[in-house]
Amino acid sequence: MYPVTPLGLPHEAMEDTEVAGYGIPKGTRILVNLYGLGRDPASWADPNTVSPQRFTFDNPRDVRGRNFEILPFVSGRRMCPGMDMGLKRVEMTVAQVLQTCTLSLHPGVEVDVEEGRGITLPKAHPLRVLVTPRLQPELYTQSGESL
């Protein structure tokens, strides 16, 4: 729902082509509305609601540029060169946090998804969570981890 940039990097048509019935002449610069793709009601049920179920095994979506409902790394020759590293790094970091900590909201606080102003659509109000270690502190220091 929240791409790094609402519009992807500019692309240029290398030859005359047709996309979805629209003629695109050679040399045309194209900006893909990534923000709009993530909120398209034709692709997503309840598109303006954060729903992790969009990406479960029952409803797989490929973020590597093959499914055009979601393009976090764009697609084609100009896609993000750090995609593989980013996906692996994020997966590892999230796994470590979820394995070693419990995340929760402050009592009485709801998640606010309001967007602020800026080219990268920052959150209007930062998300603040409580991070609580799952194990006793001495167990983290024994394994070389730090809190």
TrEMBL record:
InterPro entries: Cyt_P450, Cyt_P450_E_grp-I, Cyt_P450_sf. Keywords: Heme, Iron, Metal-binding, Oxidoreductase. One of its GO terms (biological process) is secondary metabolite biosynthetic process. The keyword Heme applies. Pfam families: p450. Its cofactor is heme. Transmembrane segments: none annotated. Heme binds at C80. GO terms for molecular function: metal ion binding; oxidoreductase activity. Belongs to the cytochrome P450 family. This is Cytochrome P450. It comes from Riccia fluitans.
